[in-house]
Amino acid sequence: MEAQPDPAQVSQAVDALARSILAQRIQTHKDKPERLRKLEFFKQQFDALLLAQHNIDGKTGPKMSLDVARLDSELQQGLTTLERDGGQYVLLPLSPGAGLPQGPAGDAKSTFGSSKKKKKSKLSCSFCNTQGHTRAHCEKRKLAPKP
């Protein structure tokens, strides 16, 4: 007869593995250069402005998005400015439709009024009091040292 593994040991091993994976993900995020994090944040904000302007104007053409790859290379070479009406302006590279802002369901379609909208969880975590997950899935709890 085969000996059954101790459930407590298996649970501890799985817990240790999960902590290791989570710590690795957090470290990967921390290792990302600050320049790239700021560039991603700028892109999200700028794309939201473009989308709002597109909706206000009632345009039917393709929605434009900031081209991050071209912007990154231009930032490294130095931005080109344009003088107009006594002011200095910077031109930003745009591309049609690429990298549109993400909606709550994680896809670009939900931002534009798709009929398949997913509800955002209204559950609240009893460990960190953050809305959107439960204690069982709380990353802060998983990383906290055990007493």
Description of the molecule:
- This is LADA_0F09384g1_1.
- Mean pLDDT is 77; it is low at 98-115.
- The protein has helices at residues 7-31, 34-57, 68-77, 108-111, 139-143, and strands spanning 64-66, 81-84, 87-90, 94-96.
- It folds into two domains: 33-101, no CATH class; 104-142, no CATH class.
- It is 46% helix and 10% strand.
Task: Briefly summarize what is shown.
This protein is mainly alpha-helical. 46% of the residues lie in helices and 10% in strands. The strands form 2 sheets. The protein has a two-stranded antiparallel ribbon. It has a two-stranded antiparallel sheet with strand order 2-3.
The count of β-strands is 4
**Low-confidence segments, ≥5 residues, pLDDT <50?**
98-115
| Overall pLDDT confidence | 77
Q: How helix-rich are the residues, as a percent range?
A: 40-55%
Summed up, the domain count is 2
* Main β sheet profile: 2 strands, antiparallel
Radius of gyration from CA coordinates: 23 Å
Distance between the termini: 37 Å
Element order, helices and strands? Answer: HHEHEEEHH
Q: List the total number of helices.
A: 5
Strand residue content:
5-15%
Instruction: Tell me, briefly, the overall form.
Output: elongated
- The structural class is mainly alpha
Strand order of the largest sheet: 1-4
Protein name: LADA_0F09384g1_1
Region (Disordered): 94-121
Pfam family, one: zf-C2H2_10
